Amino acid sequence: IASGQVFLRPETGNDSGFDYTQVDQFSDITLINRSALEASSAQSGSVSVQGRNITLDNGSVILAETLPTASVNETTSGGQINLAASEQITLTDKSKNDPFLGAPPFVCIASQLSVGVARGANGPGGEVNLSAENLTINNGGKSSATTFGNGSAGQINVATREQINLIGGGAIGP
């Protein structure tokens, strides 16, 4: 944060996290070079990121997949990925143009936000919730909701006040 204070909210059921009500100004948050935030589980884990500009670059990912449980018949619900930026959210992948990261034996992994249902899991996928002035997904970056198990893939919800830019293979969807 640029100014203010963040407090830890007390856990109530499955809901815990941070209280940003005393934050006056947020700073930029960047995940780069295959960084990962993952909350995939059979218990609906979630990831929430709040900042001025939020960027995922060079194969960085945020995942909240519904995973199988020990009991074959048990149904679970997917988690959430919540990104809230006061200015810009950007998913991009410059590694395809990097002579080192894009060269064999390295595989180019697109920067992405992903919710879904893994093979063997039962229940719906989660949600990707994006809120910003502008959203830019380019150079193969993507936001996806997929299913390989027994359940719906999940949802992608986008709220922008100005523009959504999908450029150079940027995608919202599977």
Notes on the structure:
With 174 residues, the protein is an all-beta fold. The chain contains no helices and 14 strands. It has strands at residues 3-4, 7-12, 15-19, 23-25, 29-31, 36-38, 47-56, 61-66, 80-91, 112-117, 127-138, 142-147, 155-167, 171-172. The protein has a five-stranded parallel beta sheet with strand order 5-7-9-11-13, with no helix packed on it. It is globular and about 50 Å long. The two termini are 33 Å apart. The relative contact order is 0.17. The mean pLDDT is 82.
The radius of gyration computed from the alpha-carbon positions, rounded to a whole number of angstroms, is: 17 Å
Strand-and-helix sequence, N→C?
A: EEEEEEEEEEEEEE
Contiguous helical run count: 0
Strand arrangement across the biggest beta sheet? 5-7-9-11-13
> Spans with pLDDT under 50 lasting ≥5 residues?
none
> What structural category do the secondary elements indicate?
mainly beta
Q: Main beta sheet, described?
A: 5 strands, parallel
